[in-house]
Design brief:
The protein has one domain. Strands 1-2 form a two-stranded antiparallel ribbon. 62% of the residues lie in helices and 1% in strands. It is an all-alpha fold. The longest helix has 30 residues.
């Protein structure tokens, strides 16, 4: 970010400015998008192989859909994950999800560290754009910590699930261990792939399993910078950064409001929460509220939800999780900042303040840009999907937002989509995963100080 207090001045000995050679300094956003596209291409090729499917036959578009869903850590499927894919195919999906969760650029940086032990400025900037590190100098430590933390958390979650499913529930050892490991990776990376055809419906009355999965999803959706800061100073909220304050408070608010609204709209619905006890209904509403903002697991039939419940889920999916996390959506920081801007405007305050800090105007403009562009892209996706399928409008909106926000929940239309509609969802998942990162990076890099200002003139708004 440029420093407005330091303005470079020309000296008599300075020669004419030279332009950087073309092709040497690529925009970090383009590199990130290209990395994800390359990973999707490789994943599509691997999943198209006969050895990847249970019956040896997979349509190329189905392989493309699954690879994109895995890399974007979405979890939408057009084929039943547990029965359609062979062990090779399932391992491929796990690897793609892991790469998508860590970030293509982060994974490449780790390889560079292992091979050469050196990290150039360009690689630091690319990794910084992916990990949202505040300083290019600490990217190496951030990348290492992110990788170690992710793998350790996946191991803990998988171990807890394995103990419950093998020791307590008495499941077969090897298949259950494999299932626990698979779901552990998916939960931490906020991907909704499940080896069970009913997702996690069979665990609707198992608070331990749901608690472990929901906890992993929430940690993954907070974002690594927030998790690290909470780990270091969770007892001192007054020292938290603006990022952590907004993320924690908006996340807590959304979880509470989402749980209440989902409980109200689905409590008596015989197809969702109706048959469950009061305790399990509350847990189910909370679990769905967590999954709607990040992952795509479900404990009841989402196709049976009321229109009001679908609308609440749409809103939660569009907002998403924290910045620099595996969650999608416009991010809780964007939503929270827009709410703070509105509150400041209603109060007549000239500045937007969080705690004892002031949020720069440039950051506010970036939040507005991300939110408005995301709304426009989501609307275009809804229109395109509506033209490609004959599903009802509320279902089409649900599927489009789920794909764009990389959530993975489905109202039942995904498995019934034709080839054209599947391609639309593939584009939505790709844009939803790399779009916010690319846009935020572009806006940050384009920011520059102006040496003059034009006269101000007010206009009528509203």
């Amino acid at each position: 970010m440029p420093d407005s207090t330091a303005v470079p001045t020309a000296t008599p000995s300075a020669g004419p400015a030279r332009r950087a050679p073309r092709g040497r300094a690529r925009h970090p956003g383009r590199v990130i998008a290209g990395g994800f596209a390359a990973a999707i291409a490789v994943g599509t090729l691997l999943l198209s192989l006969p050895v990847a499917s249970a019956d040896g036959r997979v349509h190329p578009v189905e392989a493309l859909f699954t690879a994109t869903s895995a890399i974007s850590v979405t979890g939408l499927v057009v084929l039943d994950t547990g029965s359609a894919w062979s062990p090779f195919g399932l391992v491929t999906i796990v690897v793609l999800v892991q790469l998508g969760g860590l970030g293509i650029t982060t994974a490449a940086t780790l390889v560079a560290l292992v091979l050469s032990r050196r990290l150039g400025l360009r690689a630091r900037l690319l990794a910084q754009a992916e990990t949202k590190s505040l300083s290019a100098g600490d990217v190496r430590g951030v990348v290492r910590t992110v990788a170690v933390f992710t793998l350790a958390l996946e191991a803990v979650v998988a171990s807890l699930l394995a103990v419950k499913w093998v020791v307590v529930d008495g499941g077969p050892v090897l298949p259950t261990l494999a299932s626990a490991g698979f779901h552990g990776v998916m939960a931490v990376n906020n991907a909704g792939f499940s080896l069970y055809s009913d997702s996690l419906v069979r665990f609707a009355e198992d608070p331990f399993t749901l608690g472990v999965v929901a906890g992993a999803v929430m940690i993954g959706s907070l974002g690594f910078p927030v998790v690290f800061e909470l780990w270091r100073s969770w007892r001192r909220p007054r020292t938290w950064s603006v990022l952590t304050l907004v993320t924690v408070w908006v996340t807590a608010w959304l979880l509470g409001v989402g749980t209440v609204l989902l409980a109200v709209t689905e409590w008596t619905n015989p197809g969702t929460l109706g048959p469950l006890s009061a305790r399990d209904s509350l847990i189910g509403a909370f679990f769905h509220g967590v999954m709607a903002r990040s992952a795509g697991f479900n404990t009841f039939d989402t196709t049976a939800m009321t229109p009001e419940g679908l609308l609440v889920t749409d809103a939660l999916m569009f907002i998403g999780g924290g910045s620099a996390s595996t969650a999608g959506g416009i991010k809780v920081t964007t939503f929270g900042l827009l709410a703070l801007v509105l509150w400041a405007e209603l109060r007549g305050d000239a500045d937007v303040e969080v705690g004892r800090r002031r949020v720069p105007a440039a950051t506010q403009r970036q939040a507005v840009a991300v939110a408005l562009l995301s709304m426009g892209l989501a609307c275009l996706g809804v229109l395109a999907l509506h033209l490609a399928t004959d599903q009802p409008t509320d279902v089409v909106v649900f599927e489009a937002i789920s794909g764009f926000a990389t959530v993975g929940l489905s109202a039942g239309a995904t498995t019934q989509l034709g080839t054209a509609a599947q391609v639309v969802v593939v584009v939505l998942m790709f844009i939803g995963r790399v779009g916010p990162v690319t846009l935020a990076t572009a806006l940050a890099l384009r920011e520059r100080a102006k040496l003059h200002q034009l006269p101000e003139e007010r206009m009528i708004v509203g």
